[in-house]
Amino acid sequence: MSPIRICYVSPEYFHWGYHGGFGFLTRTLSRELAKRGHEVSVVTPRRGTQGELEVLDGVTVHGFTPNKDGPHIFGPVLSRLASLECYKQVDADIYHSQAVSYNTLTAQVCMPHRLHMITFQDPYDLKEWNRISKVDSRYRLTPRFKVRLAVENRLLSHACSRAKAL
């Protein structure tokens, strides 16, 4: 069997001082696929001392600038624009999103004729967001936050409908 080119679309990678659950799963899965001879890449926002291009455990990690400056909506848009070149460079057969996100949409728009799949971990509904808000005030269900969730739900539902596998 010839090697498959796989790109993980992940909100984080388990290294450079960052140790989240999505990053742990991405690092574990990508490393094991690389060990089996597949060409594996990850596209993720840069964190800590991460460079634009790093190789860990046989996996090429492309880091894009997580632009958090400027008004709320423009930072994420600028970040995704910065990631477009990463997806083009990777040129994978399969783009696997570790969580449905704006990164998923960006990969789909950039590489529309490739296979896209999405894994779901910890999907939240309003009841769950309410529970989270009780321990972290950043997620209070203010009218603004509810509008944001509604917009995200609509856009990310579109990303799910475009994916080949969920």
Cross-sheet strand order for the largest sheet? 3-4-2-1-5-6
Characterize the largest beta sheet: strand count, sense, and whether it forms a barrel. 6 strands, mixed
- Please indicate the count of domains: 1
Classification by helices and strands: alpha/beta
Any idea what the CATH architecture is? 3-Layer(aba) Sandwich
Looking at CATH, which topology would you report? Rossmann fold
Task: List how many beta strands DSSP finds.
Answer: 6
Rg, alpha carbons: 16 Å
The share of residues in helices is: 40-55%
Mean pLDDT score: 87
Unreliably modeled segments: none
Helices, by number, come to 5
Order of helix and strand elements from N to C terminus: EHEEEHEHEHH
Globular, elongated, flat, extended or rod-shaped: what is the shape?
globular
User: Strand portion, in percent?
Assistant: 15-25%
Terminal-residue CA separation: 24 Å
The top-level CATH class is Alpha Beta
Helices and strands in order:
Layout: E1 5-9, H1 21-35, E2 39-45, E3 53-56, E4 59-64, H2 74-90, E5 94-97, H3 102-110, E6 115-118, H4 126-133, H5 143-162
Parallel strand pairs: 1-2, 1-5, 2-4, 5-6
Antiparallel strand pairs: 3-4
